[in-house]
Design goal:
Elements (H helix, E strand, L loop, with lengths): L17 E5 L5 E3 L3 E8 L3 E3 L4 E2 L11 E4 L5 E7 L4 E3 L2 H4 L4 E2 L3 E3 L3
Antiparallel strand pairs: 1-3, 2-8, 3-7, 4-10, 5-9, 6-7
């Protein structure tokens, strides 16, 4: 069997699901400090239209910036603290999801 070729087409009908948020360093942050948020998915994702995060207590959505991660299972964002004192609550952050219908699996 020489020169045999196979064409395989994978049909993926499941959208990527957020499975968590990579934990941040717990502690106290002050106005102007930059923190990193990494959203973890159950499969490799693509980011279209620069995904953003919604409102997070103590962080203005305008201060949250997409930093990278397309082609992996984790999208990373940075945010600037805009209040005098901010205490990281990783449990509350777990419910945070990117907005704008901008996260897709690589098959889409």
């Amino acid at each position: 069997m020489r020169n045999v070729r196979f064409n395989v087409r994978v049909i993926d009908t499941k959208e990527p699901a957020q499975i968590g948020l990579a934990p941040m360093a717990e502690g106290q942050y002050r106005r102007g400090d930059t923190i990193t948020l990494s959203v973890v998915y159950d499969e490799i994702v693509a980011n279209r239209n620069n995904a953003s995060l919604g409102s997070i207590s103590g962080l203005s959505p305008a201060n949250v910036t997409y930093r990278g991660g397309e082609g992996t299972n984790m999208l990373t964002f940075t945010a600037t603290v805009n209040q005098d004192s901010y205490e990281v609550d990783n449990i509350a952050l777990m419910a945070q999801k990117p907005i704008g219908q901008t996260v897709y699996d690589m098959a889409s």
